[in-house]
C-alpha cells in the first residue's frame, strides 16, 4: 500500500449523488459540497476531519472543485469561507467568480 497523504496521490472522486467531491485517507473522509444554481456551482462546505488536518486536503479538494467548474464552464459562488480565501490566495481562479 502506498503512503497516502501527499497531494499527488490524493484520490478525489466526484460523488454526484451526494453533490460533493471527496477523498478518503486512513478511513477518514474529507469533502467539499456544492449546490447547483443555474450555471453556477455554489461551494457551501469544505469539511476536513481533524485527523487529516495540516496535510493540504482542504486545498486539494478546493483546487479540484474549481478545476471541475472551469472544465464544465460553470461560475463559482464561494459560500464557504475556505473556498473564498483559497481564491484570494490563487488569483488565477478569480475569473470563475
Task: Give a written overview of the molecule.
With 97 residues, this protein is an alpha+beta fold. The protein has helices spanning 57-71, 81-89, and strands at 13-15, 20-25, 28-37, 40-47, 75-78. Helix 1 links the parallel strand 4 and strand 5. The longest helix has 15 residues, at 57-71. Mean pLDDT is 92; it is low at 1-7.
Descriptors:
single chain, 97 residues, alpha+beta, 2 helices, 5 strands
Based on secondary structure, the structural category is alpha+beta
Please tell me how large the radius of gyration is. Answer: 13 Å
Beta-sheet strand percentage? 25-35%
Proportion in helices:
10-25%
Low-confidence stretches: 1-7
* Overall pLDDT confidence: 92
**Could you tell me how far the N terminus lies from the C terminus, measured between alpha carbons in angstroms?**
39 Å
Layout of secondary structure:
Layout (H helix, E strand, L loop, with lengths): L12 E3 L4 E6 L2 E10 L2 E8 L9 H15 L3 E4 L2 H9 L8
Parallel strand pairs: 4-5
Antiparallel strand pairs: 1-2, 2-3, 3-4
Outline of the structure:
The chain has 97 residues and is α+β, with helices and mostly antiparallel strands. It has helices at residues 57-71, 81-89; strands spanning 13-15, 20-25, 28-37, 40-47, 75-78.
Amino acid at each position: 500500500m502506498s503512503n497516502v497523504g501527499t497531494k499527488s496521490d490524493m484520490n478525489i472522486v466526484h460523488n454526484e449523488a451526494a453533490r460533493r467531491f471527496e477523498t478518503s485517507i486512513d478511513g477518514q473522509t474529507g469533502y467539499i459540497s456544492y449546490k447547483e444554481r443555474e450555471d453556477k456551482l455554489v461551494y457551501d462546505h469544505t469539511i476536513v476531519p481533524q485527523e487529516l488536518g495540516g496535510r493540504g486536503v482542504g486545498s486539494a479538494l478546493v483546487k479540484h472543485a474549481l478545476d471541475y467548474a472551469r472544465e464544465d464552464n460553470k461560475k463559482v459562488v464561494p459560500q464557504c469561507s475556505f473556498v473564498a480565501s483559497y481564491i484570494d490566495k490563487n488569483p488565477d481562479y478569480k475569473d470563475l467568480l
